[in-house]
Amino acid sequence: MRSPIGKRHWAIAEGYIPGWSHGPEPQFTSHETACILNTADQEAHVEITIYYADREPVGPYRVTVPARRTRHLRFNDLNDPEPIPRDTDYASVFDSDVPIVVQHTRLDSRQAENALLTTIAYAGNE
């Protein structure tokens, strides 16, 4: 049996959900996504905290990723404890009880010529 890969703490320093989109929904809705990979033999309980430039952090947003699975989580869909505001800069920190891998993706469809970016999040010490 292989050891799970990843870390327990991750950060995405850059976050921004455009306020409007161009194209059919939901496929072309501008969004931010965290792709979470759990290779462990147990489910991952992940808590996400959102940081802002001009106010206190919000969270935790709680997410479960089943064992040996992936979950693509749109920040647009996070509502509890509160929705993430559009057209607002933010950052996010992920804390998990088992090692995970986090990738960040953004679809910006404010123009007909869409922009897509993706990168691995910053892995913490553990």
Write structural notes for this entry.
The protein is mainly beta and 126 residues long. The chain has one domain: Hypothetical Protein Tm1070, Chain: A (Sandwich). It has strands at residues 7-15, 31-38, 44-52, 58-65, 69-74, 90-108, 115-120, 122-123. Strands 1, 2, 3, 4, 5, 6, 7 and 8 form an eight-stranded antiparallel β-sheet that branches. Strand 3 and strand 4 form a beta hairpin. It is elongated. It starts with 6 loop residues before the first strand and ends with a strand.
Q: How many individual β-strands?
A: 8
Main pleated sheet: 8 strands, antiparallel
Number of domains: 1
Cα-based radius of gyration, to the nearest Å: 15 Å
| Total count of helical runs of at least 4 residues | 0
The CATH architecture would be Sandwich
Query: Structural class given helices, strands, pairing?
Result: mainly beta
The rough form would be described as elongated
CATH class: Mainly Beta
Parts with pLDDT < 50 across at least 5 consecutive residues: none
What letter string, H or E per element, gives the SSE order? Answer: EEEEEEEE
Mean pLDDT figure: 84
The share of residues in extended strands comes to: over 45%
| Helix share, percent | under 10%
The CATH topology: Hypothetical Protein Tm1070, Chain: A
Distance between the termini: 21 Å
Ordered list of secondary-structure elements with their pairings:
Elements: E1 7-15, E2 31-38, E3 44-52, E4 58-65, E5 69-74, E6 90-108, E7 115-120, E8 122-123
Antiparallel strand pairs: 1-6, 1-8, 2-5, 2-6, 3-4, 3-6, 6-7
